[in-house]
Amino acid sequence: MKFRIAVTGMALVAHAGAVIARSDTPPLGSNNVVVTATRTARTADQSLAAVDVITREDIERRQPQDLVDLLRTQAGIDLTRAGGPSGNVSLFMRGTNSNHVLVLVDGVRVASATTGAFEWRSLPIAQIERVEIVRGPRASLYGSDAIGGVIQIFTRRPEGAEAALTAGSHRTGEIQAAWGSTGSTRMFVTGNQRATQGFSAQNERGFAFDPDNDAMRQQSVSAGVESALGREARLEVRGWQSRGHADFDIGRSHLVNGGVNARLTQTVSPSWSHTLSVGAADDELDSVSVGASRFQTRRRMADWQNDIVLGAGLLTAGLSYVGDAGQNINVTSGATIYDRNQSDRAAFALWQAELGAQDLQIAGRHDDYSSFGGHNTGNLALGRTFTPDTRGWISYGTAFRAPSLNDLYSPGSGGLFAGNPGLHPERSRTAEIGLRQRFSPDQHMMLALFSTRIDDLIAFEGAGFQAINVDKSSVRGAEIEHAVVLGQWQVTNALTLQRARNETTDKPLVLRPDKKLSTFIERNLGAGSVGAEIILSSDRRDVGGAELPGYGLVNLAARHSLNRMLTLEGRLENLFDKKYQLIDGFNTPDRSIYLTLRYRL
Asked: Within its chain, how far is the Cα of 29 from the centroid?
């Protein structure tokens, strides 16, 4: 019933916005420039894919405490966390698995080479300038993992000096500082330290319940330099690192994550430019529980991209290399459980053309892995502009996920749950149709319908629960996004309807709701703003078959400029102190409040 009411409310807001006079508030985000969807700059309106952009201004308006708060309101994205801030986070895009989304930080692949998943706890909000989200397959441009889509995070590029102090519930405290220069050569740096006492990750239903608080401490820094090299070339170097300690009910973990990327862009002629980038990402996870173990991974990357104007079209083509190495060490005995590596060499090309009212994109890629051989992927998208305010697209794409080092080489435990060097990549096929409609300069809507089928999913179901390619899954769904400015009010809605099923067992995929709605309503007050964030989620199935009921959350955010340099911000989470679960046996935050005093020179 509450979803029926919410969807009806969206329709009423859309109708009201269509007849209201245009305000002086700037148009909403569909004109944001996106580079992730095609590797070249295009506005969201021009993209032949479902894309979203989260800017630094959006972050400061909503004041999320971490990436879970920031991303959970986006269409097509579901997140779970095993307890509070110290708990492991899993992200599901368009109902696909948590390792079916490619995560880039400043262009560098940052998922662990051993587990295949990104450590979402490692990158705090203070370090984030911008997030680009592309839903749907992008393996033809980026290779492995981009089955559900791509999330690219750009670290801070401040101008001038700023600092912030935060204090809040669960004995949370944070200090931030940032500085950046201006001019043809820019330098910038951002640092922060955050600590929280947290709360007990598990409750009485948990498998290892301990009623103590599970704390987290984290220190992070990012820095970079950008410089023009003459009139036709530019060099950018960016890097980040995060260190932290996270408690859980039966132990503690120490996390170190970081990456660096150097990018040289040169315009050779009016019709040809190219970009050469080299990057690295390292991560280390030390866990102390019943025993002590350490996972270390190292990734080295190189990418050469050429953008060539050919007639009415643009050809983007290049070469890519990724080398992964990973170690698993038993810290107690000092024994190396495994020490393995794999590499991938690839060539890719994308042709984009505007033919009158039609758009065409054709992409293809060949990856050659040292562990399993070659794999081809492709994407075809057709777009049409029906009117200046109405655009539609249809696309079909294939994607894959290469087995991680754990999937391939882990010896398991006691002879059980071992890896399998003979694994094949997981493969997907996705069809999508979408429509963008701008009702006025202050109101727009996006609709996307998609269907994804994934074959050769890796499951630990072989002899002795060894990893094998066995499962199949399918996801069908719809996403509706709507945004409108009504005078000093701004309303954004994101509705996700999906059916994610394991085709082998004919059961719902775990921890993925069939329905989710998020709404953000904000009032501009001149010297500040006040907003309400509403999240509604339907029930979900957990591992083991437990049914988790649906829930609704209301969060509030406000900010007020005290003077030209000082701003006071506040966020109240879980206004009605709702009791809910994202994972069976694990707790979620109660009503919490956070206050931030921000200074800008």
From this structure: 18
Residue 36 has a CB neighbour count (10 Å cut-off) of 26
For residues 111 and 91, the answer to whether their CB atoms sit within 8 Å is: no
Tokens of 498: 């999906």
Closest CA to 484 of 19, 3, 4, 8: 19
**DSSP 8-state class, residue 308:** E
Q: What average pLDDT does range 404-422 have in this prediction?
A: 89
* Angle, CA 501 vertex, CA 496 and CA 502 arms, to 5°: 150
| Cα dihedral: 463, 466, 469, 473 (round 10) | 100
Number of H helices, E strands in the chain: 5, 34
Locate the DSSP E strands across 487-527.
489-502, 507-508, 515-524
Banded pLDDT at 290 (limits 50, 70, 90) = low
3-state secondary structure of 227: strand
Output 31 or 296, whichever has higher pLDDT.
296
37: left (phi > 0), else alpha (psi -120 to 50), else beta? alpha
Interatomic CA distance for residues 541 and 520, integer angstroms: 27
Q: What does the H/E/C string look like for 101-136?
A: EEEEECCEECCCCCCCCCCHHHCCHHHEEEEEEEEC
Can you say how many angstroms the Cα of residue 77 is from the centroid of all Cα atoms in its chain? 8
Place of tokens 């775990």: 510
Banded pLDDT at 464 (limits 50, 70, 90): confident
C-beta atoms surrounding 441 within 10 Å: 15
How many Cα neighbours within 13 Å face the side chain of 539? 7
Q: β-pairing, 128-135 with 50-55? A: antiparallel
User: 193 Cβ partners below 8 Å, 6+ apart?
Assistant: 174, 175, 217, 218, 219, 220
CB atoms within 10 A of CB 314: 19
Tally of domains in the chain: 1
Interior CA angle at 516 toward 514 and 522, to 5°? 175
DSSP 29-61: GGG-EESTTTSS-EEGGG-SSEEEEEEHHHHHH
The string of pLDDT tens digits covering residues 60-74 is: 999 999 999 999 999
> Residues 354-367: pLDDT tens digits?
999 999 999 999 99
> Tokens for 173?
């405290």
Instruction: Read off the pLDDT of each residue in 498-511 and give the average, rounded to a whole number.
Output: 93
User: Residues 6 or more apart from 567 whose CB is under 8 A from it?
Assistant: 528, 559, 560, 561, 597, 598, 600
DSSP single-letter state for residue 418: -
Place of tokens 């983007």: 316
* CA gap 122, 588 in Å, rounded: 19
Rounded to an integer, what distance in angstroms lies between the CA atom of residue 295 and that of residue 287? 9
Cα 408 to Cα 421: distance, rounded to the nearest angstrom: 5
Token pair recorded at residue 480: 């509706």
CA nearest neighbour of 426 among 452, 393, 391, 396: 452
Distance CA 539, CA 519 (A): 19
Whole-number percent of the chain with pLDDT over 70: 95
Please tell me the distance from the alpha carbon of residue 555 to that of residue 253, in angstroms, as a whole number: 30
> Which tokens go with 349?
């090309």
Quote the tokens at residue 283: 């991560």
In contact, 33 and 346? CB cutoff 8 Å:
no
Is 248 a residue whose pLDDT tops 80?
yes
Give the domain range for residue 44: 2-600
Q: What is the mean pLDDT of residues 402-428?
A: 91
| CATH code where residue 409 lies | 2.40.170.20
How crowded is residue 570: how many other Cβ atoms within 10 Å of its Cβ?
16
